[in-house]
Amino acid sequence: MRHGIDLNRARELHEREKRDFLAARPRARALSEQAASRLLFGVPLHWMSDWPTPSPLFVAEARGAELVDVDGHRYADFCLGDTGAMFGHSPVPVAEAIAREAARGMTTMLPGEDALWVAEELARRFGLPVWQFALSASDANRFAIRWARAATGRDRIVVFNGCYHGTVDDVFVDLEDGEARQRASLLGQIYDLTEHTLVVEFNDLAALDEALADGRVACVLAEPAMTNIGMVLPERGYWEEAQALIRRHGSLLLLDETHTISCGPGGYAAAHGLRPDMLVLGKPLAGGLPAAAYGFSAELAESAQQAKRAAPPGHSGIGTTLSANRLACAAMRATLTEVMTEGNYQIMLDRAAELERGLRELFVRHGLSWCVTRLGARCEFQFTPQLPRNGSEAKAGQDAELEQCIHLFLLNRGLLITPFHNMLLLSPQTAEQDVARLLATFADWLDAARAA
């Protein structure tokens, strides 16, 4: 028995679910066999093989909050491209803007009016007056770190244990037995990241103060609430004290709101009064089209521009050719105008609150000491009785085997949730009946797999 679940029952059930998955998807199996010789690990990106399915699930189309696979099965989508489609797949205003702009030129490496409009709207929503664009939040974080180092003349950054900020080399550092260690899973890394990256536990003010004390830290890179190791919320008063520490030591605060944008139109920072020096947005900003943006305070923008002007001519290492392309700028404008609205957020928040209540009631009814965390339209259940305080506690509460059992059971019944941990995201198109169906199906799994 583990976490209140009879493992033997869960494993027997899981074996049946794997057989059922394969039997019901002959077209997907055929595509998987074909892909094995042309795609590394048989998928376009290797981590697409990390879903809890015995072979890849191939998608035919996605609209609103629903996916259809190549075998015709429909799924209520609670993953939503891991936030890329947070407002639903192919929102009509965004699809129309992309189609319109595609006929007028997709990329020119020159500015257009949409870029200025988007920057002005981002400044209004997020309180940072100056912006730049990228193709992904990974790039935006990478570029923001460069600007922070260039503007401050400092070489180090601080991250939180268990963080993830995209494929930014600097952040793949964890705490092991109190020591910073380069993450063992990182491939092809040939220099020691711990020379320039310090890592501390979230919610630990003393550790943050100590990390900042040597005066070498350019910026603290953080999600306002951790979401990738499992959701970890800041304790009351944490960010007020942390911001004061960061400023006292002359460092910058760089907030990554790629996931916490689920909290509202201005993200977590606007909802809770945080005042970062830089802020990164990605994934849903262009309705699922690759695009990201990062903002600067007025003071930092001036320092960054001075650093660029003082540098020798040549490539800064910041920016890519397709960044701020016309298609992305048009999609961002449409998203901010007609999709990322107060009304849509209210629907999402209400649905997420329904799911949160339902999960809590479900676990009480089944006698399980599992916790539920909600962050705006994002909701997660974890196999621990108390909400985790930091990345170490969140990691200790994970159970990959149980997660796979639950996820595949749901998927075989037309319910898709985010792989890797137990996060669910609610869009404006998520129907009340789909929330109810998810809870009922989860209850069926618990009835079949929990300890007698």
From TrEMBL:
<keyword id="KW-0808">Transferase</keyword>
<comment type="similarity">
    <text>Belongs to the class-III pyridoxal-phosphate-dependent aminotransferase family.</text>
</comment>
<keyword id="KW-0663">Pyridoxal phosphate</keyword>
<dbReference type="GO" id="GO:0030170">
    <property type="term" value="F:pyridoxal phosphate binding"/>
</dbReference>
<dbReference type="InterPro" id="IPR015421">
    <property type="entry name" value="PyrdxlP-dep_Trfase_major"/>
</dbReference>
<dbReference type="InterPro" id="IPR005814">
    <property type="entry name" value="Aminotrans_3"/>
</dbReference>
<keyword id="KW-0032">Aminotransferase</keyword>
<dbReference type="GO" id="GO:0008483">
    <property type="term" value="F:transaminase activity"/>
</dbReference>
<protein>
    <submittedName>
        <fullName>Aspartate aminotransferase family protein</fullName>
    </submittedName>
</protein>
<dbReference type="Pfam" id="PF00202">
    <property type="entry name" value="Aminotran_3"/>
</dbReference>
<dbReference type="InterPro" id="IPR015424">
    <property type="entry name" value="PyrdxlP-dep_Trfase"/>
</dbReference>
<dbReference type="InterPro" id="IPR015422">
    <property type="entry name" value="PyrdxlP-dep_Trfase_small"/>
</dbReference>
